[in-house]
C-alpha cells in the first residue's frame, strides 16, 4: 500500500508546491522589491534585496506623501463598527429564528436570506440618494450602515445553523431558574456559539476591509477615505514612481497578511467545520 | 401554532426585540434601496422632475446604439469572464482540494494557508501587483518566460484588446481559487469514512475512487460554488476598475456590467451621469443574477438533493 502510493504522494506534493509558488510569488515579489533601490528593482527583480540594492526610499515617499495613517484609522473604525453590529444584530436575529416558533418564522428566514444571493451593490443608485437625503454622504456612518446591512444575511444564516445545536435542556434549565430570555441569550447562548461568531467575523471582515465600491461612491472625501480607496488613488498618482508604488502595496498587504497568519487556523476551521453547507 | 391552542399566552415581545435591529437595518439599507433602484429605472429626470416613463429607459438601453453596443459588449465580456472562472478556477480548486484531502499528507495546513493568501488581499493590491508583473517595463514576466524558453510568447497582455479580458479573468481566478478549494475540501472531509472504506474493499482506489465515489458526493458543493461564482462575476467591478480604470480599456475590451453601470451612473469624459440609466442597468444585472439563482435553486439544487440521499 505505502510503496504503491509513494509516487502519488510525490506527485501530490509537486502539484501543491507549484501552486503554492504561483499563489505566493506575486506577493513575495512585491514585498521583496519594495525594499530595493530603483536600480535594484529593474536590474534584478527576482533576487532578494542585497546590501547594495537595499533602500527604503519607497517607504519614506509613501509616508511623506499619503495620509495613510488616517486612512488606516478610517478603515479600522468602519470595519470594527460594522463587525460589531453585524455580530450583535445577526446573533440576536439568528437566536429569534432558531429558538422560537412563531408565525412567519420561515418566511422571515427566507426574507433575511435573500441578501446572501442578491448583492447590495445593485441598490447603489438608491442607497446614494438615501444617503444624500439623510446628509450621510462622506461620513463613516454611511459606510458602517451599508456594511452592516451587507453582512447581516450571511451572519444570520450561519449563526442560526449553529444556534440550533445549542442544547435545549440548558436553555430550559435557565428558564426554570427564572432567567429572562435576554439573559438566556447573552449569558448562555452567546458564549457557546463564540467559535462560530469568530468564523462569521472573518467572513464579514475581509470584504469590508477590501471594498472599493462603496468608499468610492459614498465616502470619497479626504476625511473619510479608507485604506483601500486611498491606496487606489495613491497608486494612480504615482504610476511612474515604482519605489513608492511597491512600498504602498507592501504597506497595504502586510496588515492583512499578519492578521491572516494569526487567524488562519480559526478561519480554515470555520470553513471546514461545515458552516457553509 | 402552539400559541393558538393556548389563547392566554402573552405576546412574546422579546422575539420582536431580537429581530428588530437586524430586520430594520437590512430592510432600510438593502431591501428598500434595491426596490428603489428597480423603481428608479422606470423614471426619467425631465426638467428636474422625476417623470414616470415606463420601460422607456430600457428601450434606450437596448434600442439606442450609444447604449446598446456598450451593454451587449459588457454582457458578452462578463459571460466570458464567468466562463473562464468556471473552466479554470473551479477545476483547479477541486483538484487542489482533492490533493489536500488525501490522508496522511504532510504540510497540508501550510499549503492550505498559503494558497488562500491571495483571496484575502484586496482587488487594489491584486490588480496593481499583476499590472506591475505583466508590465513590459519591469520585465518580470518576459524574464520568467525566458527561463522556460518561451520568451517569444510575451506581449503586454493587459494592453492588447484580444488578450486583456482573458488575462484579467485569469488574475481573478488566481485570486479566488482558494474559495472553491476550501469549500470542496470541507465537503471531501465530510464524506463518511465508511463510504471510503467500502470503496477500498471493492478495490476502488486512487483516481477512480475520486471520479466514482467522491465526485458524485461533492456535486452539491460544486453547485454552490458555481452559483457563488456566477453571482460574484456578474457583480464584479473592483479588479477591472483598479487595473484598467473606469473606461475598461483598451477600447472597452474589458468592460463588464459593473464598470458599465459605474460609467452610466457617474458619467465619464463627455457623458454626464444618469442615475435612471444606472438604475436600468442595475435592474438588468438584478434580473440576470436572479435568473441564475433561480436556475440553481429550481433546476440544479433539487436534482442534486435527490442524488445526495
From TrEMBL, chain A:
Q: Which PROSITE patterns match?
A: ABC_TM1 (PS50928)
The source organism is Mesorhizobium qingshengii
**Subcellular compartments:** Cell membrane
Where do the ABC transmembrane type-1 domain residues begin and end? 72-263
Top-rank taxon, per record: Bacteria
Q: Which UniProt keywords apply?
A: Cell membrane, Membrane, Transmembrane, Transmembrane helix, Transport
Coiled-coil stretches = none
Please report the name of this protein according to its UniProt entry. Carbohydrate ABC transporter permease
Membrane topology label = Multi-pass membrane protein
Gene3D superfamilies the UniProt entry points to:
MetI-like
Transmembrane stretches in the record are: 12-32, 76-97, 109-132, 144-163, 184-209, 242-263
Record family assignment? Belongs to the binding-protein-dependent transport system permease family.
Q: Which Pfam families does the entry mention?
A: BPD_transp_1 (PF00528)
Q: Please indicate if the UniProt record lists Transmembrane as a keyword.
A: yes
TrEMBL record, chain B:
- Indicate the segments forming the ABC transmembrane type-1 domain, all copies: 75-298
Q: What is the recorded name of this protein?
A: Sugar ABC transporter permease
Q: Which UniProt keywords apply?
A: Cell membrane, Membrane, Transmembrane, Transmembrane helix, Transport
What is the membrane topology noted in the UniProt record heading this document?
Multi-pass membrane protein
Highest taxon, organism lineage: Bacteria
Instruction: Give the stretches traversing the membrane.
Output: 12-35, 80-101, 113-133, 163-188, 217-237, 277-299
Cross-referenced Pfam families, in alphabetical order?
Answer: BPD_transp_1
Source species of the chain: Mesorhizobium qingshengii
InterPro entries named among the record's database cross-references: ABC_transporter_permease, MetI-like, MetI-like_sf
Chief location of this protein within or outside the cell: membrane
In which compartments does the protein localize?
Answer: Cell membrane
User: Which family does the entry's similarity section mention?
Assistant: Belongs to the binding-protein-dependent transport system permease family.
Q: Which Gene3D superfamilies match?
A: MetI-like (1.10.3720.10)
